[in-house]
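Dear support,

We are seeing what looks like truncated structure output for some complexes. This example has four components. We would appreciate it if you could run it in full and send us the complete token output so we can diff it against ours.
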Amino acid sequence: MEGVKDKTEEKAVEEISLKDLSRKLEEFAKARDWEKYHSPRNLLLAMVGEVGELSEIFQWKGEVEKGLPNWEEADKEHLGEELSDNNPSSEKKEDRRFSPHPCNFQ
Amino acid sequence: MEGVKDKTEEKAVEEISLKDLSRKLEEFAKARDWEKYHSPRNLLLAMVGEVGELSEIFQWKGEVEKGLPNWEEADKEHLGEELSDNNPSSEKKEDRRFSPHPCNFQ
Amino acid sequence: MEGVKDKTEEKAVEEISLKDLSRKLEEFAKARDWEKYHSPRNLLLAMVGEVGELSEIFQWKGEVEKGLPNWEEADKEHLGEELSDNNPSSEKKEDRRFSPHPCNFQ
Amino acid sequence: MEGVKDKTEEKAVEEISLKDLSRKLEEFAKARDWEKYHSPRNLLLAMVGEVGELSEIFQWKGEVEKGLPNWEEADKEHLGEELSDNNPSSEKKEDRRFSPHPCNFQ
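Here is the complete output from our reference environment:
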């Protein structure tokens, strides 16, 4: 995930609890007045969209091994960005409308 | 689907049989030497990617009625383009690597 | 797709045009009074569900070759059934609430 | 999520950090010798399958409000089960082959 956030930030994210992550996501949405968009089916379709973007990274690769040994650095970075789209501390997300999170469905 | 292809082309597509569609997709891939990419799981992930793009169009809309009565023309056109991504006669597809089609899975 | 429908039926399906397929799907839904369920986002989520079922067939297989040379007959049959879930002439579908089809989105 | 796990267990899960969750998922897989199944594309397709199952719960509902005010208890419970499919402490998962988790992709 290099290139998306620095080491300190990455560590902070890893230490966060599911509960605090959920709370941070709520605050993130509230601060931007995005809660009105977060109906269950909106969030579900957003999750489908995110999984679709992950799939587009992998779609023409054929089978790949754990650790992505033969991938170019740019592809790994792209993957890291997609995987961190749920990460509330990512600076990259400022221009995104929300963070999908399973806890928001209920 | 206006804006993606003209009326004559649209009619031709509608008249095509599933068998001929499948054959055209095969020819389309063969002519570009793309068959090597068309392993079952590559195609499946490509299909997930396409469904993800459809979902991204609908994700923040809340519920929408049949016929998309309140959608702007640009959104309808975007949707038409995504839906025609499986359409082998679309000129737009020249730069795409393939056309996913259920028949190719087996 | 052996085991799902007989040869004659399979041929009839292959010869059908996209336009007639679309019309048959409409009639199929109308006859069951299912049109009320066919809002764009309902259909989209149903499509996501179908793609999810396809994915579950492939998820633990590792990479598979075209033609599925090492698959057991039961797995091939299961795949055929999932792929034919869009096929309006399949007897298997009598108990399903609808047939998702891209043409219904607009 | 009542019915899937008791209150104490639920609290324990909420307090877990992303790092520990990731580690528990690894241990869970290792103890069952499932690591061999966890190639990136296997996990990705498993994630698509899970999102597909969520979609099947929502597909015929039309739009639903936050908190699912008009849902029956059985539907809410089913949803809770699907959402907890990533939860490594769920007893329900003993018979599942693995837990998909974004962290496993890299």
